[in-house]
Structure prediction request, 1004 residues.
Amino acid sequence: MKISKIRGLVAALFAAVTVVAPGASIASANTEITFWSWRTEDKAFYESQMRLFEAKNPGITVKFTPYLNTEYNAIVATALTAGKGPDVLQMRPYGGMANLSDAGNFLPLSTTDVPALKKLPAGILAGAQGYKDKKQFGLPYAVSALGVMYNPDILEKAGVGALPQTWAQLQSAFDKVKKAGFLPLGNAGGNGPALEQLHATVGPTFYGGTAFFNDVVAGKKTFTDKGYVASLKAVADLAKWMPANYQGIDYNTARGLFANEKAAFYIGGNYEIGYFRSLNPSITIGWFPAPKANAGAKRYVGTWADGAYAVNAKTTQKAAALKLINFLGTKEFGQALVDEIAFIPTAPYVKINDPAVKEINRWRTTLGTPFLNVVGFRFEAPTSSSILQPGFQKLIVGGTTPEQLAKDVQTAVASWYAPQKGKS
Amino acid sequence: MIKLLASRTFFQSILVINLLLVLLPVFFLFNSSLRESNEFARTPFALARDPFWENYQRVWSEGEFGSYFLNSLIITGGSLVLILILALGAGFVLGRYTFTGNNIIFGFILTGMLVPAKLAILPLFIQLNWMNLLDSRLGLILVYTSAALPAAIFIMSGFFKSLPVDLDNAARIDGASEFKLLSKVLVPLVRPGMAIVAIYSAIPIWNDFFLPLVFLQSPEKKTLMQGLTVFFGQYASQWGVLFAGLCLAALPLIVLYLILSEQFIKGLTAGAVKG
Amino acid sequence: MSSALRRDQNRTTRALLIPALTVIIVFTTVPALTTLSYAFFSWNGFERSGLAGFDNFQRLFQYPYLEQLTAALTHNTIAFVAIMILQTSLGLLLAYAMFRVKRGLRLYRVVVFLPVIFSLVVVGYLWQSLLDPYYGPINQIITAVGFPELAKPWLGDTTTALPSLIFINLWRWVGFPAIVFLAGLNAINTEYIEAARIDGASESQVFRKIMFPLLAPSLTIITVLTFIGAYEWFDLPFVIGGSNGSPAGATDTLALMFYRTSFGSIDSGANDVGVGSALGVLIFTLVGLGAAIGSTLLRRREVEQ
Prediction:
C-alpha cells in the first residue's frame, strides 16, 4: 500500500507538471503512442501483442486503452474534437464513424504507407472508408461472420444426428434438445444489438440474401417486401425456444448460458467464440451456416468488415503510428488474431487451425452476404439499426407485428436515403 | 398509555423493516464479493463459507484500482477543500452582512442549482479545452466546485445567519478585523454546517462517472467510478470480482459517512432547514 | 457604523464573495447560457455552422425525434408523480418513526440514510443482479414463497421496467426526505406539542394540525428537489438501461435523449448537436419554470413558528 501510494503521488506530481506544460513533447529516445479500442474483452490479447511490437520497435511504447463499447463513440468524438485523441484507434465499420471521418479526423492511408491495404479486396476496404469522402481511413483487421454455434456434446445427448439444413429441421433439433432437458437457445431478448445480429444470421435466407441487398440499396425494393417481413417473423418465432424470462436476460447472461453448457445453440457472430472460451476453456464449439428457409431457398452467411485500425489526423507521432498500423497488418498478427481470440483476419495467407473458425471461413467465402444494416444503412440517423434494435425487443414479446416493424424501418431509411425517398 | 406503547411498536417495526430492506441487499453485495465467480454462477444465493479474498486482490492489482482510487481522492478532496473555503466566505458575507444587492446575488447563486453539469457538457468541453483544462483533474475540480457551490453557500449562509449578532459586536469591540471575526470566532461555531456541506457535496462528486468519462482522456487520470465501467466490460460474468470492485468503490464514502454522521445529524437537527 | 468598519466590511465582502461568484459564473452560468445559444445554430458533427433560427426546435418536434420526446416526457412525469407521492410519504413515515422511537435511534438514523451515499453505478449494478431473472435472489425468493408467476423479468419487460427503476430509485433516495423531515420535526418547538397534548389532542391530531403545517419548509425543499431530480433523471436509467432506454425505450428519459442526441451512440449513427441543444433548452425551461412556480406556491404555505 505504501509503495503504491508513493508511486501514486509521483504519478500525480508528474501529471500535474504535464498539465501545467501542455503540448510539451518529450524529445527523448522513447516515443509513446496511445491506442484506443472498444474491445475490453480483448485487453489481455492486445497488451501481449503490444509488447511484441515494442520488442520489434525499440524506442516506441504503446499504451493500449479499451473503453466500454457503448461509450466508445462518445468518448472518441469528444476527444478528437478537443484535439486530445489517441494516435491509433479502432474505427467502427461503414457509417459507424461517418461524421468523424467526414470531419477530417482520420489520416487517409495510402498503399505506400500501409502496403497491407493492397492485398485486401474492394468489399472489405469499403468498410473503412468515409461516407461523403471515400478515402481509405482505416486498415480493416477482421471480417466477421454470422452463423449458428452449437455444443456437439449436448446435441449428442439429445440425439440430434445430422446438422439442420432447413428451418424445419432446426426447429425439430430445438425440440429434441428441449426434451432432453437442455435449453435449446442461449440467445435472449435483453439486448437489442444481439437480436439484430440474430436476425442478420437467420434472416437472409428469408429475404433473398445479396440480391435483396442490392435491390434495396438501389431503391428497387423496399423493406416492406414480403421476404423481409418473413425474415422478421422468423426472429419472433425463435422466441419460444429462448430461455424463460428472456426479455430480462442480458447479453452476458445469455452468452454465459451457452458457454456454461446449459444451452445447445447460440446464434450470432464468430467474435463470440473467444468470449465463450474465456468463460469455459474446456468447451467444444461447432458451427454451421444458418439453415435455409425451405427446400427451395438458399443458405447465407452474413458477413462484413468489422472494425479497422485508423490513425488520428492530428497525431504528433505519425511515423510511430504508421509502424503500429503496419504491424497490425502483418501475417503474424493476423495469425494471433485467429489463434487467440478466434477472429477471422483480413490479413491473407493466415493458417486457420481452429476447426470452428475454419468451418466459418470456408462457408463465408462461398455463402457470404452483406450484413444489411451495418453495411448499407448506418450512415445517417435514424439508422435501420436504431429502429430494429428496440423493435425486435418489442417483437419478441408481441408488442408489435413484423409488418409494422418493417414499415417503421422503411420510414426511417426513406427519411434520409436518397434511392428510398418517397417509397414505402 | 397503552395506545402510546402500541404505536411505538408500530414505528419500531417500520424502522426494522427499513433496516432489513437496506442491509440485506448490501449484505448480498458484500457476501457475493467473497465468493468465487463460477461457484456464484452455480448457486447465487448462498453464504460465503470460505471467504475468497482473491477477488479483492485481483480488483486491486489487475483492475488498477490503486490509481483510480487516488484520482478520485484527489478530485473529491480537492473539490471539497475549494468548496468549503469559498462557501464559508460567501456564506458569511451573504448571511451576516446587509448591503444592496445581497438578495439579488443570493438569488442568482441559487439559480445555479437548476443547471446540471450534463446539460452544459458541450460548451463546458469546448471552454475547458480553450482554457487548457481538458484531461486535467484541476479542470474537473473547478467544474465540480462550481456545481456544488450554490447549495453549499445556501447551507452555510443559513448557519451564519442563525448565530447571535452579539458575537460580532463583542469581537469588534475587542478590536478584531472582519476577517478575524470570521476565522477565529464564527467558523468554529458553524462546524456542523461544514459537515453537512462536506457530505452533501462529496457524495455526488465521488460517485460521478459522467464528467470524468467526457473530460478525462488519459487512463492514468481516471476515477474510480469511471474505471468501474471499463472494469465491467473486462470482467463481465466474473461476478465475484465485479462485486468486490463495487464494494471497494463504495467503501471510502461509507467510511467518511460513518465518521461524520454525528456532526452531520447534529447539523441538520440544528434547524438549518428553515428556508 | 463607523467608516473604518464599513471599509473593512466592503473589503471583506469583495474578497470573500468575488472568488465564489467567479467560479460559478465561469463554470456554470456561462456554459449554461452557451448551451442554450447552441440551439439556434446549425451543426456539422461538432463543428458549428451558421445561425439556424428555430430550425432545431422544429426538427425536435418532428419525426424521428417527436416520438422519443413524448415517450421520454411521459416517463419523466410518471417518475415525478410516483416518486413524489411514494418517496415523500415513506420519508415522512420513516422520519416520524425515528422521531418517536428512542431505542436504537442512532443505528436507525445511520441506516436510513446509508443508501443515499452509494454511487448509482453500485446501486444500479447491485439491483440488476438482485433482479436478474436467471441468477437473481429476488425471483428465487418469490418462487420459493409460492408465487412463481410473479417471478418476472422485472428490468426486461417493457411494462415493469420503469416501475422497477422507480422502486430502485426509492430504495436509494428515501433516506434523504427522511432525514430532512426528521430535522424539521426536531426543530418544532416542543411547547406547541405539549400544549396540544394538555388540551387532549390525539397523536394523529397533533400530527395533522401542528406538525405537518410546520413541516412546510422541509416539504418545499423536498418537492422542489424531487421535481428537479425527476425531470433531469439520468444516472440510474443510464446505468441500467443504457443510453437508449432499454428495453425498447421503456426507460428513456429526457436527459438520456439529450445525451444520445448530442453525442450519438454506436448503432443510432450520427449525432445532432442542434436538436440536442434545443432539447436542452426545453428541459431547462421546464425545470426552471417548475421549480420557480413550485417554490413560490409552496412558500406561501410555510408558517412562521
